[in-house]
Write a structure and sequence with these properties.
The complex is a heterodimer. Chain A is an alpha/beta fold. Chain A has 15 helices and 12 strands. In chain A, strands 2-1-3-4-5-6 form a 6-stranded parallel sheet, with helices on one face. In chain A, helix 2 packs parallel to helix 15 and helix 4 packs across helix 5. The two termini of chain A are 33 Å apart. Chain B is mainly alpha-helical. Helix content of chain B is 47%, strand content 10%. Chain B has 10 helices and 4 strands, in the order ββαααααβαααααβ. In chain B, the strands form 2 sheets. Chain B has a two-stranded antiparallel sheet. In chain B, helix 3 runs antiparallel to helix 4 and helix 8 packs antiparallel against helix 9. The longest helix of chain B has 18 residues. Chain B starts with a strand and ends with a strand. The chains are: A alpha/beta, B mainly alpha. Chains A and B meet through helix 2, strand 6, helix 14 and helix 15 of A and strand 2, strand 3 and helix 7 of B.
Amino acid sequence: MSATEVAKPTAVLPVLQDYAAIVGEPEILELRELARRLAGRRVKMVNSTAVGGGVAEILNRLVPLMEEVQVPTRWEVITGGEKFFHVTKAFHNALHGAPYDGSADWFDAFLATNEENRRRMHFEEDFVVIHDPQPVALIAGRDPARHESQRWVWRCHIDLSNPNAQVWDFLKPWVERYDASLFSSPQFTRGLGIPQYLFYPTIDPLADKNRELDADFVRGVLEQFQIDPERPILTQISRFDRLKDPVGVIRAYRLVKKYQDCQLVLAGGSATDDPEGAAVLREVEEAAAGDPDIHILNLPPWSHTEINALQRGSTIVIQKSLKEGFGLTVSEALWKKKPVVASAVGGIPSQVIHKLTGMLVHSPEGTAYQIRFLLSNPAFAKSLGENGYQHVKEHFLVTQNLRRYLVLFLVLLQGG
Amino acid sequence: MTVSLEAKRADQPFQFVAASYLIRIGAEPVQTLGALAKSLRSCSEASIFFHTFQSLETHHYTSFSSDFAQWALTACNEAALAEQLAIVDLREIVSIADLRGMLVGTVQDYLKEHSQAADRRAFEAFYFCEAREVTVPSGPPAWTLAELADGIHLLGHQSLHYHFINSRLRLHLKTNDFSYWIEHNLNYPWLAARLNRLDFYNDTLDDLRQDILAVLEPQEKR
């Protein structure tokens, strides 16, 4: 194993057949049928973090399932120093439309780290899938001799609808060297000169974060964090990131609290590739100071069962992001049949169809308004949760992600 | 004489396929109904197909199954146009060219009556997409109605959609794969017609599967 390869999980993971109880036996049979057409083909996935954040979570489940259906898949994570991740965080924010004030040498630093990783890695597989901008320049490692037989795909998990021009102009030529690109929503695309395919991110219904939990366990977790199970609980699960607007959530909560009793839970952590997390956490703690009904939980990355319990124990789940790639926490909440109030940004409108599978909002005041409405109309809130569950089952489960990748590889083999 | 329909053996078997779709996001998005009318004339046939037939696979909650209708309603706030686009009966359509013509005509006629709507910017853009279809043979072939029903039990959603809904255009007929096979290989036109009358607009695919199986249940013809 190279220094950057992600170790295969040692814990007992669900196997494909376990999902038949959720998606039906026919879907499983067809997945195996598709995979048989890829016999002998190999895949490499590359991203920038093995823990924390939605991409690592998706790969943690997708890769073992690919292996199980006999499509050998190797997942590797690039390494880089503090400066590299500082630069890529600035890129991330800039691609979401934030101002960019990087110095002239930042692009050089970005490329230098990519080059270091390229030299360490070997790209011998039939399909190479590079996730997000951090490792995008690894395409320089493409073997010219295998230009026809090896396919490179760029998977973009973030919203590129309004990128900073300086950063995007730097990245775009690298992206257009790939054979295809994958986006979480049509709105995220940039009119690239290569095919752009729609790939919804997905959740794993059998993972600790989403599996069914005993009601007593849920109550126990709430009490462990001094949250009162008998009073309404509003929850936002997300890492401490300004783009998730945790301070805006506190504003919304305070507007609700003027009229209705409730508690607020802000639970999350920091990904290893996000150096701003600690600063944002301090801002949130300052904004919440003095209110015993605001629970700020900075959880370690392995707290999946606790997060599951917090979502299941919530009355309403909030996702008030200012910008969002897809916002998988929305699908997680919908899967638990929770009414969701979420910003109409990024991929969230794909998950929350306004008034049908949740409520879309545009401001802290709008968030507060819809929360008050749902707290006053629990039957309607329940129907949103039921619809949301069906919507996730149809589109956003890991089995669909596996199917999309298998179909993508077959299409690429056909020259698509 | 009593004849068991389910046991009669066909001349040629029915071959099930596992169908899958990869959605390709197309050209520049459109922001107005005027632009939609223009793009409807020039977009790919696969795109017309995707936003009308393919969308029947997924929409369970929205008011209309046609993406064009849903966009006219939610992004353009043109409920009357949305209704006109939604009521195009796909069971009467035998070619994409016909469908394109109906859609273009519907939007153009509406904009003649409501010219102010042509250039009004929608709340959100419409992105033309198209599906890349991948099919592989799946399961044992069916020689009898009973075997056909067994196979339908084992079809995934996308494959059921392929055989019952998408097939209408593939066959260039007002029918589906199952009805076509029943009529031409078992010689039961009345049963084929009965199956073909099922309303695939308002069912979920699971409901549709149950409706199909209910028609194919063991029967006797005297």
